[in-house]
Amino acid sequence: MARRGPASPTDQARSTFRPLPPGDVRITGGIWQRRAERNRVAAIPSGLKQLGEASNLFNLQLAAGQATGEPIGPIFADSDVYKWLEAAAWEYGRHPDEQLLESLMSVVELVAAAQDDDGYLNSVVPFRDGGRYVDLPQHHEFYCYGHLMQAAVALSRSAGRRELLDVAIKIGDHLVATFGEDKRHDVDGHPVIEMALVELYRETDNRDYLELARYFVEARGTGLIAGYGRRPAYFSDRVRVREQTTVEGHAVRAVYLGAGATDVAVELDDQELLAALETQFASMATEKEYLTGGLGSRWEGEAFGDPFELPPDRAYAETCAAIGGVQWAWRLLLATGKADYADQIERMLYNGCLAGVSLAGTEYFYVNPLQLRDGSLADEERNTSTGRHGWFGCACCPPNVMRTFASLEGYVASTDPTGVQVHQYVPGTINAGDLGLTVETDYPWHGRIAITIDRAPDAEIAVSVRIPSWAQGATVDGRPASAGGYVSVTKVWKAGDQLLVELPLVGRITSPDPRVDAVRGCVAIERGPLVYALEKQDQPSEVAPDDLVIDADAEVREEDRPDLLDGVVVLHTSGAVVDRSTLPGGPADHPRPKSRTTATELVAIPYHVWANRGPQAMRVWIPLA
Ligand code: FUB
Ligand code: ZN
């Protein structure tokens, strides 16, 4: 059985770094371990229950001829089942549990029974819309296939079970026979099939799947999806992928496409395509990404906005988009070896993704704004003023979080011919061939990271550590290390040797680009990789953050709070409360005379734990006094 995690390039692929196989990295403590454990113990079991209650499993029973009635839920309901299966499969690999395998295999059996003889599989479309592939842009048939293939690969890699892989292969062969330049020339409205087909190729060695993935990437941007009520940009279909310079349209679609196209570029050594994808990612990161790593500012179309259109209160920043951003960044990191991508993964994981799930692990945010106003109207279930939910009518995010938490180890480290690279700092062990490391740290709360060599080859080998771009003043073994990049220490290591990385974890004040009009005149507080937020309940007299301003030269003081929100470092700074009664009437957006303010302390918690004591007013960007 191949020992591979998600997104592992083949040996022939042009990839600077290679991921470590599952099991070679273990996370033994800290935030990630705690979240992953709750995912295992609480979220994954509750996810299966939700799939039953929301009728996703019933739909598959219908398709399998085991029930009668009409399918229920969104057209892409099957994808939630497949994402859950992927989560359960990776989790089984981390923690073999026969009961989990049994329940997951019973779902696999149902999925297999729902498949048509020629490979077609969908439990909703044929029942509801009278035929296969009649509306590919909207019907998500390939999207569902893609998630099934990813689950099948996960199950094959983590448990050596082929049952779902056989279903995936049948779908893959059916797609190869049906779609392509000289066959039906068409693509799905929602990417994911691209990265899934590349993974299926990696798992089966069948190059037809890689060729089909390449075809789907190349066919995009040729106007195939025009005319369905939405403009091509929504579907990332306005510009060919290799000619595109930014991200646009529906955010999850765009980042999944970026990730899949990167897989294709790496496997085919297509440097032109890879360069285009790097340009697109850079444009996203500098012009269209929230401080939290959140992606997609528009509710309308769940889409990227124009450059610098990043309103904090109306931010959409879907949890799935941050997850897709991590997947894309990881692929670019492996392909190029550039530390910026690991920085991005860190930002997205610690803020945009983590905020999407409750500390308990079983409630989720669909959208992740950077501000919730006091008394915000709970107009619909996605609005954060309704709190996190156990599931949604459109439940794309919850099982996406589950599969991410079940495969977190994959993002920690990698190898190249010179040695091992440590990208993310978590307590645990890293094994890369003859080299074994133990990492001890309380990061992201404290900046000391001690890496002890447990085993080493009898030859020179490099241990490379990432110095994040915010880490001005970092040291490695006491020597200054520049922020942004890797520091490599190459030598003949002996068991017991240590490498000490010290990252300066101090509160810092961040100013936005002046072109982000929505937060002009505001600043945010960050500490290490964490973005901080003011939540109403922590402020003196529980003043709503809407009424708070921050001192321009505010000093930031920190306080360890092991008792609060799973244990956090709280930040204190100074500012003032605006006295509403001194504000004149008249239109809110007219210039106003100075209002009276009263000095106060501001108390900030990590953004990712907000709304764990009930939804309440919160803000990341704070107006300067
Ligand atoms: O269309 C399938 C999923 O539903 C998308 O990825 C999410 O943005 C949500 O719209
Ligand atoms: Zn989602």
UniProtKB/TrEMBL annotation:
Residues 1-22 are annotated as: Disordered. It holds the Pfam family Glyco_hydro127C. InterPro entries: 6-hairpin_glycosidase_sf (IPR008928), Beta-AFase-like (IPR049174), Beta-AFase-like_GH127_C (IPR049049), Beta-AFase-like_GH127_cat (IPR012878), Beta-AFase-like_GH127_middle (IPR049046). It comes from the Bacteria. Residues 24-409 form the Non-reducing end beta-L-arabinofuranosidase-like GH127 catalytic domain. Residues 420-505 form the Non-reducing end beta-L-arabinofuranosidase-like GH127 middle domain. One of its GO terms (biological process) is carbohydrate metabolic process. Residues 508-623 form the Non-reducing end beta-L-arabinofuranosidase-like GH127 C-terminal domain. This is Glycoside hydrolase family 127 protein. It comes from Microlunatus soli. The lineage of its organism: Bacteria, Bacillati, Actinomycetota, Actinomycetes, Propionibacteriales.
